[in-house]
Amino acid sequence: MAKRIALAYSGGLDTSCIVPWLKETIPGAEVVCIVGDVGQGSDELAGVEQKARNSGAVECHIVDLKVEFIDDYVIPTMIAGAIYEGRYLLGTAIARPILAKAQVDVARKTRCTALSHGCTGKGNDQVRFESAWAALAPDLETIIPWRHDKWNLSGRVAMLDYLKARNIPTTASATKIYSRDRNLWHISHEGGSIEDPANAPPDDAWMLTTDPAKAPDTPEDISLSFTSGRPTALNNKPLPAWKIVHELNDLAGKHGVGRVDLVENRRVGMKSRGLYETPGGTVITEALRALEELVLDRETRHYREHLGLTFAELVYDGRWFTPLREALWAAAAKIAEPLTGQITVRLFKGRATPIKRTSPNSLYAEKMVSFEGEEIYSQKDAGGFIKLLSLPERIRAMKHK
Question: Where in the chain are all domains bearing CATH 3.40.50.620?
């Protein structure tokens, strides 16, 4: 029986080469390509099935994952407050577990015996895919071309020559300025002049967002409604979460919202520089944090922040299918139960600023804060509280004396 290999396929230069390479390296192998549609857009998906077959694949499966991607992966990650190293909204990282899961599902249905991907040996994605496979399909063999002894396609020119020698058509060229990853949540840019942290971000890299300096001079206010932390309406219009993200990408993008220029620590140990655009996600994140300010008590909110740090590292490191990630999500979902309300966010010159907050579960009591209402909060009570709070300091001072 011929070995059947399920390949995570994008249609780019790397995976176009990997299809014939697998067939040549493993005699008799059949390659099944799996393309996960996470909202990367029609430009990337156009003709991808035929492209896979032209490369030698026996089958190509395109799986629509957009709704599940946003509902079951992205929004839970934002509810948990997971932002890697304080700035990165995990747009690439959070797509990997659902892509790996879809790949395994198709592999099972098509009787594949092995799994493969086109990730290099330097990046995070190899860790993310293979960690997911380990959790979901430990019985399947893994074949990793970029780390294989017989892989010798080290550059774009070599890959193009490889395809040309086999009469496999490609739209790729010898020069590629930037390496990009796009989905419904974000787009990332790496390579070219971006690799030098001493260089300012090149103007031609950005795709989803307007230069804040050239953004409209008039701010735009939008409202987001949430139910238990999940976005449910935009400007009072009920919409599914994926549609809210899609529309916010346009609304916020034209105001230059969502740009991040980050030097991050990769899981494999090196630093890398990337440009990220997450316009809709930035608005949702800012609105959700504003709702937390209104609803969560201090201890709960601070613990959620602690939880979010660990959750972000798990997502970034490809540890989605782990007991710890599941346990943290259970805690985050419980914390988010009262996060119902409406937040108005002002979009202006690269910023998304919450300006209005309402919630039926608000803990904000105006009478408590004002100088009125002594019958609710007596200022005299604060004296005893301060004495108890500062007791360790007073004892320490007395000991020194």
Answer: 4-176
Do residues 291 and 226 touch, judged by C-beta distance below 8 A? yes
In terms of Cβ atoms closer than 10 Å to its own Cβ (0-12, 13-18, 19+), residue 200 is exposed
pTM: 0.93
Q: What is the spatial order of strands in the sheet that 187-190 belongs to?
A: 179-182, 187-190, 271-277, 259-265
| Half-sphere exposure for 27 (CA within 13 Å, toward CB) | 0
Measure the CA angle with vertex 317, ends 123 and 65; round to 5°.
90
DSSP-derived pairing of the beta strands 114-116 and 141-143: parallel
Catalytic residue list: 14, 96, 125, 179
Structure tokens belonging to residue 221: 């206010």
Q: What is the pLDDT of residues 35-91, one digit of tens each?
A: 999 999 988 899 999 999 999 999 999 999 999 999 999 999 999 999 999 999 999
- In the CATH scheme, what is the code of domain 4-176? 3.40.50.620
Domain with CATH 3.90.1260.10 in the chain: 180-296+338-358
**CA-closest candidate to residue 307, choices 321, 280, 285, 326:** 326
Name the residue with tokens 């520089």: 273
DSSP string for residues in 350-394? TEEEEEEEE-TT----HHHHSS--TTTS-TTHHHHHHHHHTHHHH
User: What whole-number distance in Å separates Cα of residue 382 and Cα of residue 391?
Assistant: 14
The secondary structure of residue 303, as a DSSP letter, is H
CATH number of 180-296+338-358: 3.90.1260.10
